[in-house]
């Protein structure tokens, strides 16, 4: 690990010392200007992803941007345009998509193990104590369940179906701080396919996912960071144990290195068009429920 940047040199230095970075910068401009930086992982709060990513892309630095890729589709479109104008790699850091378990799911579905997929169910929710000033509950930070953890569900369904939904029905419970504390979403796709997704920051759930096909189904315990895939068919149940060391982020990093070595501008596993489609879906869900962040124009 080479360098870390922050608007506060004290925080950058403390982070660098704790995690073993060689350099610490008190501005993102300094970080982006360092010729020793090969690629940048943007992990600022949601609304400031665009600013940091654009700065690095214009400096010809490949960018991996923390999920959600942006606070809304307008920001995402500008980021993608900037990457393409500058001929620089850009990818959403949807790290779970590269885990062995999720790769196995794509392999099984691609091989027709459960036939045509008809329904996806995914939930990602946890109990957090109300803190109006904390990132999760602050509207200025684009807080709430939908962008913090619900985006995992939306991206998971998008990965399974590989297309945008024809119909989106949703209900967001807006809490006292003006962000969604829970989201319940039903997506309908052409051909009788559907997804039921739930996220929350005030209640805990199993965080499991299931994929139902015409010839069987797949269960994923703790799907967003799990290491087990269960294939269930009329002949019986087959369990795939797919353990991994460390945090699991190494698979995402390996994909980025593969893309950069090959001179690619984006990843085929997490393409920019899909990232944008997911954010547009999140926007529609929010706008349908009259949820806009303070920094958004009323006519977006």
From the structure above, extract its key features.
2 domains; 8 helices; three-stranded parallel β-sheet; 300 residues; eight-stranded mixed β-sheet; Dihydrodipicolinate Reductase, domain 2; alpha/beta; Rossmann fold
Provide an overview of this structure.
The protein is of the alpha/beta class. It folds into 2 domains: 3-94, 3-Layer(aba) Sandwich (Rossmann fold), CATH 3.40.50.720; 96-249 and 272-288, Dihydrodipicolinate Reductase, domain 2, CATH 3.30.360. It contains 8 helices and 13 strands. Helix 3 packs parallel to helix 4 and helix 6 packs across helix 8.
Overall strand count: 13
**CATH fold-level label of the largest domain:** Dihydrodipicolinate Reductase, domain 2
Write down the overall mean pLDDT: 96
CATH level-1 class of the largest domain: Alpha Beta
Task: Output the radius of gyration.
Answer: 20 Å
Range of helix content: 25-40%
Tally of contiguous helical segments: 8
Strand order of the largest sheet: 7-8-9-6-10-11-12-13
Which oligomeric state applies?
A: single chain
Q: Estimate the strand proportion.
A: 15-25%
Q: What is the strand and helix layout of this fold?
A:
Elements: E1 3-5, H1 9-19, E2 23-25, H2 28-33, E3 40-42, H3 49-58, E4 63-66, H4 73-86, E5 90-93, H5 100-110, E6 117-125, H6 145-161, E7 167-174, E8 180-189, E9 193-200, E10 209-213, E11 216-220, E12 228-233, E13 236-241, H7 250-261, H8 272-288
Parallel strand pairs: 1-2, 3-4, 4-5, 6-9
Antiparallel strand pairs: 6-10, 7-8, 8-9, 10-11, 11-12, 12-13
Helix pairs in contact: 3-4, 4-8, 6-8
């Amino acid at each position: 690990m080479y360098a870390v940047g922050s608007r506060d040199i004290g925080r950058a230095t403390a982070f660098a010392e704790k995690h073993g970075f060689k350099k610490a910068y008190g501005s993102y401009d300094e970080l982006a200007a360092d010729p020793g930086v090969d690629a940048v992982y943007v992990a600022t709060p949601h609304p400031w992803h665009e600013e940091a990513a654009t700065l690095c892309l214009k400096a010809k630095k490949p960018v991996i941007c923390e999920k959600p890729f942006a606070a809304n589709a307008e920001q995402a479109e500008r980021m993608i345009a900037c990457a393409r104008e500058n001929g620089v790699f850009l990818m959403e850091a949807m790290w779970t998509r590269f885990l062995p378990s999720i790769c196995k799911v794509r392999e099984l579905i691609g091989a027709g193990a459960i036939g045509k997929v008809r329904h996806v169910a995914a939930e990602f929710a946890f109990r957090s104590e109300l803190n109006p000033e904390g990132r999760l509950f602050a509207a200025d930070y684009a807080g709430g369940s939908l962008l913090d953890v619900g985006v995992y569900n939306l991206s998971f369904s998008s990965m399974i179906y590989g297309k945008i939904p024809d119909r989106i029905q949703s209900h967001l419970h807006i809490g006292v701080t003006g962000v969604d504390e829970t989201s319940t979403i039903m997506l309908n796709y052409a051909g009788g396919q559907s997804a039921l997704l739930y996220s929350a920051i005030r209640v805990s759930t199993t965080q499991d996912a299931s994929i139902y096909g015409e010839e069987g189904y797949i269960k994923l315990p703790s799907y967003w960071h799990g290491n087990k895939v269960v294939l269930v068919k009329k002949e019986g149940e087959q369990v795939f144990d797919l353990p991994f060391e460390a945090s699991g982020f190494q698979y995402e990093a390996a994909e980025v290195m593969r893309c950069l070595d090959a001179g690619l501008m984006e990843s085929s596993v997490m393409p920019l068009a899909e990232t944008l489609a997911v954010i547009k879906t999140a926007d529609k869900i929010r706008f349908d429920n009259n949820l806009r962040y303070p920094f958004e124009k009323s006519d977006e």
